[in-house]
Amino acid sequence: MSGFQYTRVSANVALGFFEDSFPDPLDLICGQCGKRATFEVGTIAIDPRLAHFPTILKRDNGLESKLSFAGYLRCESCESASNWKYPPETLDLIAESFSKGILLGKRPQGMINASLSLFDGTPMHNFADGEDKLLAKIEE
Question: What is the pTM of this model?
Answer without folding.
Answer: 0.79
